[in-house]
Structure formats: C-alpha cells, structure tokens
Backbone:
C-alpha cells in the first residue's frame, strides 16, 4: 500500500513539475502567426532553393540575350620575328625585326534561330521559377500553420488535464474526509485516486506533445517559441460552395500546375532550338586594325578599316545536332508527363481538401450538440449532487465529459481554420494576406 502511495506521489510530483515548467512561458512574449512566418521565410530551405532558381533563371535570360547583342572586342600583340627567305632572290634574305598589331572589332548577329529559341526558353524558365517561389511559400504557410495549431491544441489539452487534476484533487480530499468520518465510501476514494493518477500521466504526456510542438516551430523559424498568440476563429465551409469553382481556380492559379506548364513550354522551346542547329546563321562584322612589319617590308605600318558579313551553313556536325534534338524531344515528353501528373495530383489534393473541410463542418455541428448535451448533463448532476442523489464521482465524470466536449469543439475550430487554408493552398490562392488577417493586421492593397 505504501509503495503504491509513493508511486502515486511521484507521478503527481512529475505532473506538478510539468505544470511549473509550462506555467513560466505564460509570461513570455507571445508570437503571432505572421511574425513566425516572416522568420521562417528567411531560413526555409525550400524557399531558398526556389529563390536561387529564380535568380539563376534571370541570369540564363541575360546569357541568352547576349547571343544576339553586338559584341565589341579589342586586341593587341607585339612579336619578335626572324626571317630567312630562300629561292626568292639569288641570295637568301635574312633579317630580324619587331612587329606589332592592334585593333578593335565588333560582331553583329543578324540571323541566329537557336539563339532566339534560347531567349524564349529562358523567359519561360523565369516564369516557372516565379511560380516555384509561390509554391514554396504556400507550402511553408501550410507547414507553419500545422505546427502552430498543434501548439494551440497541446495548450488546450494541458489546460484540460491541469483543471481535471484540480477537480479530482478536491473530490479526493472530500472522499477521504468522508471516509475518515465514517460516512464515505472507500471505492470512491480508490476511484478518485486512480483518476488523479490518470490525469497526472495525461498531463506529463501532454507536456511532451507541447515540447514537440515548440521544437517544430523552433526548427521552422530558428528561434525559441515559448508562447504563441491564440486565434479567434469562426467556423465556415467552402466559400463558394461549388467544387467546380475551386477546381477551375486550381487549373488557372495553382503554382505547381503553372510551373509544370511553363516547364513544358520551356522544353518545347529548347527542342525547337536544338532542331534549329541545322539552320544557317548570318552575322556582320566591322573593325579597325593596325599592323607593323612584314617579311619584305619590316618597317611598314598598315592601317585598315573593314566591314562585311559572314554566312555559316552547317553541313555535317558529327551527329551533334540530331542527338541534341532527340534529347530535347525526350525532355519535352518527360515534361508533358510531369504536367499530366501535376494536374492529376492537383485535382486529387483539392478534392481531398474540399471534402475534409465539408467533413469538418459536419463534425463541428456534432461537437456543438455534444457540448450542449454535456452542459445539460453537468447541470443535472450538480443539482442531483446538491440534493444527495448523485455522488462526487458522478459529478467528476460529468465535469470531465463537459471539459472534453469543450476541448474537442475548440480543436475542431482550429481544424476548420487549417482545412480552409489547406483548400486555398490546393487551389493556389493562399497568400500572406491570409496570415495578416489571422494575426489581426490590415491586409495590404495589391491594386
């Protein structure tokens, strides 16, 4: 008996320590969702990769344009020459002289189809990278909101078990007092003790869940998150309620789908550019040169201005152009398959998000009725307890049922908010303005 009591005291002591540890963050500065997103955006690897790809795409476009922009170059050289000319005159001609040359020239592309296709491909690449940044940020919002809601749910659970320990402790004290006075029931004491042990264990478990939620937010944001600001949410279903509207919005605005389309367009331009390797190219050139020294006139300086055009007609390149074209066609086929896959996954994801939100709305209504019933039951048991027809354990059970119904309703409200934003993300319209609205800040005017 004493061993059981000591074990119970240890459990309750651990629970009390958990209460002390998690009561301290209540005075810490609360962080809202927008603040945490701002921190997470600066360090998220997926967002960083998308930003880097966008910057690389912009550089690719500059490189592609450089192929059709006139180029200017200057050159200079100096050389020591030793000459020995035979069979030109009866006697060999030998000499030594220093020569030099310098000049400036420009090349002007006139017709270069591969370069034009490269420019078009680079443009679609930038658009693809921009939609990739949007997709990465939307995914970050969803991941951050999931961690934020987990934190709020863990706090709600912690409060539930803390309150339950307080209620059970009072009932246990009363039951032990009644038993000592000879008017109580030992079974009630045992049941109250078992309930207290269970609540203490649940509190320790919830403390672990709260730590995991804190760690998750810390890993996303890079800062310690000791407290978060609660959100006042109102339940709502899909608005508008027509799934076809959401599907059409997804087809037009989903970043993942738009990125797959732009990647396909880019592969088409690259395939055209590879095939254009068979086309002739035409370029103009002009410049000015100065040369000093030649075999027979070592001291003569020659100045020249020149201008002309150059036509290059590919005849045979060892199969390079054909191989590049085959590879580009294979890449285009791969991108087309990826577009089909992105479309199918987008439709599936949106339908799941839509149905999950509808289910959540139905669940919310059920939880509301459950809470109303639990509240009526609690009031009835309280009255029965006052007149002696219900026991303390009956009251304890009713209070616990009511507390759980409130917690379930609150959790379902958080889930409703999360499901709504997940539906927006699936449709491609989730934005930072949604976080500003949840954080109680004015929404920016993007007009």
Residues:
């Amino acid at each position: 008996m004493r061993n059981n009591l000591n074990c119970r005291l240890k459990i309750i002591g651990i629970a009390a320590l958990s209460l002390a540890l998690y009561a301290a963050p209540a005075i810490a500065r609360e962080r809202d969702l927008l603040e945490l997103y701002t921190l997470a955006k600066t360090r998220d690897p997926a967002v960083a990769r998308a930003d880097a790809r966008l910057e690389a795409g912009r550089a690719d476009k500059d490189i592609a344009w450089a192929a059709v922009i006139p180029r200017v170059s200057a050159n200079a050289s100096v050389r020591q020459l030793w000459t020995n000319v035979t069979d030109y005159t009866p006697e060999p001609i030998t000499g030594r002289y220093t020569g030099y040359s310098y000049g400036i020239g420009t090349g002007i592309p006139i017709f270069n189809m591969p370069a034009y296709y490269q420019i078009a491909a680079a443009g679609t690449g930038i658009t693809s990278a921009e939609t990739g940044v949007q997709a990465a940020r939307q995914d970050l919002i969803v991941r951050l909101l999931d961690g934020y809601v987990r934190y709020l749910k863990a706090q709600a659970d912690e409060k539930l078990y803390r309150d339950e320990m307080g209620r059970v402790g009072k009932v246990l004290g009363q039951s032990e007092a009644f038993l000592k006075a000879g008017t109580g029931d030992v079974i009630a004491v045992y049941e109250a003790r078992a309930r207290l042990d269970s609540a203490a264990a649940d509190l320790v478990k919830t403390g672990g869940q709260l730590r995991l939620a804190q760690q998750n937010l810390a890993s996303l944001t890079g800062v310690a998150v000791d407290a978060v600001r609660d959100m006042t949410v109102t339940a709502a279903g899909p608005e508008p309620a027509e799934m076809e509207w959401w599907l059409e919005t997804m087809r037009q605005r989903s970043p993942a789908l738009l990125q797959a389309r732009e990647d396909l367009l880019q592969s088409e331009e690259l395939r055209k550019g590879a095939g254009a390797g068979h086309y002739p190219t035409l370029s103009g050139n002009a410049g000015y040169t100065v040369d000093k020294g030649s075999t027979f006139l070592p001291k003569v300086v020659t100045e020249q201005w020149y201008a002309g055009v150059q036509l290059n007609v590919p005849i045979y390149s060892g199969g390079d152009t054909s191989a590049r074209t085959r590879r580009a066609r294979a890449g285009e086929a791969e991108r087309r398959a990826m577009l089909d896959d992105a479309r199918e996954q987008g439709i599936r994801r949106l339908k799941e998000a839509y149905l999950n939100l509808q289910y959540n709305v139905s669940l919310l209504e059920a939880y509301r009725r459950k809470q109303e019933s639990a509240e009526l039951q609690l009031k009835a048991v309280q009255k029965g307890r006052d007149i002696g027809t219900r026991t303390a354990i009956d009251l304890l059970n009713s209070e616990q049922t009511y507390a759980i119904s409130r917690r379930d309703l609150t959790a379902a409200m958080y889930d409703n908010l999360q499901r709504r934003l997940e539906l927006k993300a699936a449709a491609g319209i989730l934005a930072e303005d949604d976080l500003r609205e949840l954080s109680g800040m004015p929404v920016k005017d993007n007009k």
